[in-house]
Amino acid sequence: MEDRTSTRVEDAELWSRAAASLSIGVVLVDADYHTVYSDYADKIPTGGFAERILLERAISALKHDARLELYRSQTLEVFGPPKSYFQLVTTPLGSDPHPPFIITVENITERKRLEEVRRDFVANVSHELKTPVGGIVLLADALSQESDPATVLRLSRRILDEGDRLARLVTDLLDLSKLEETELHQIHDVNLNEIASECVDRYRLGAEARGIGLEVTFAPDPPIVSGDRWQLSSALSNLIDNAIKYSEPGTEVRVTIAISADSVEAIIADRGIGIPARDLSRIFERFYRVDADRSRATGGTGLGLSIVRHVIENHQGKIDVTSTEGVGTTFTISLPRVPA
Ligand code: ADP
């Protein structure tokens, strides 16, 4: 008999240790309406004073209702800042009249934030797709009623432009979703001099056509980083493409690859229009543009810098930007160096 009692005590201890180890808070109330276990307050970060008070009130109300055999769930919104959300669920333990019950308290702030990000993203993508698709439909309609060869040519060219824009947007979206799987599948030792050389070659003609010089300085020793060649090339390409797009004719874009003891740097500097200080912290967000008209006119999708940010995060690197309006912008990528 004694053994049994001690086992029960040990069981109870074990259960409360198990409950304490869960990330959700637990309040256990017995059939006599005594709170026999409660740990939600211990799971709120220190400083969460408002959360503690509001949760206490909400739990009292849920307990009161449970006593009347009304088992409720509730989402509690705590206005911050920062704003937080808690999901509270009351569950009876058994079907007897006035059974014991449990209230679980889950912090769902992160889940809510992700839902919001996803909602915004879907709204943004739909909006971005709507513009070229709408354009194509209108232009095609006009084209079908046109017989003048010069107008037919002009309308077809505009349809092609909108089609191109649509294709670029879809390609960038696919790239972004590939990059969001943070795990790198194709890891090799990659020489950043080679990648910079390939990217600069790809953009040189286009830059020259716009009267912009494209200069590259390579690192004297092999700048080797461990990573995915396609991703690194896509990050550099996006930065070079932007540097050219946001520069005026007669200026120069400089790409420099440099090494230090433990890092490899790629510096892309232009003498272009620059970025206002108030926008600098937001340019890596998806679809954020300082000047939407200029971005669209130059074929931008608003996704280039989010692609760059993902690539750098996937490679445990850092990206910095300094810019002065009317003077120019410098992006510096820093990646961990693989010793030669
Ligand atoms: P976009 O396709 O519009 O170029 P990005 O994500 O590549 O989108 O860049 C976001 C915004 O940041 C751009 O719309 C532009 O306003 C600004 N930006 C990026 N690079 C530069 C640069 N080198 N000089 C000036 N502005 C830039």
Report on this model:
By secondary structure, the chain is of the alpha+beta class. It has 3 domains: 104 residues, Beta-Lactamase, CATH 3.30.450; 70 residues, Signal transduction histidine kinase, dimerisation/phosphotransfer (DHp) domain (Helix Hairpins), CATH 1.10.287.130; 155 residues, Histidine kinase-like ATPase, C-terminal domain (Heat Shock Protein 90, 2-Layer Sandwich), CATH 3.30.565. It is 46% helix and 22% strand. Strand 4 and strand 5 form a beta hairpin. It is elongated and about 85 Å long. The mean pLDDT is 91. Bound molecules: adenosine-5'-diphosphate (ADP). The site of adenosine-5'-diphosphate (ADP) has 22 residues, from helix 6 and helix 8.
Main sheet strand line-up? 2-1-5-4-3
Query: What portion of residues belong to β-strands?
Result: 15-25%
CATH superfamily of the largest domain: Histidine kinase-like ATPase, C-terminal domain
User: What would the principal axes of the Cα set say about the shape?
Assistant: elongated
Q: Give the number of helices.
A: 8
Give the helix/strand class. alpha+beta
Return the CATH topology of the largest domain: Heat Shock Protein 90
Q: Taking all residues together, what is the mean pLDDT?
A: 91
Termini Cα gap: 72 Å
Report the top-level CATH class of the largest domain: Alpha Beta
In the CATH hierarchy, the architecture of the largest domain is 2-Layer Sandwich
The total of beta strands comes to 12
What level of helicity do the residues show? 40-55%
The unique ligands bound to this protein are: adenosine-5'-diphosphate
Order of helices and strands: HEEHEEEHHEHEEHEEHHEE
Low-confidence stretches: none
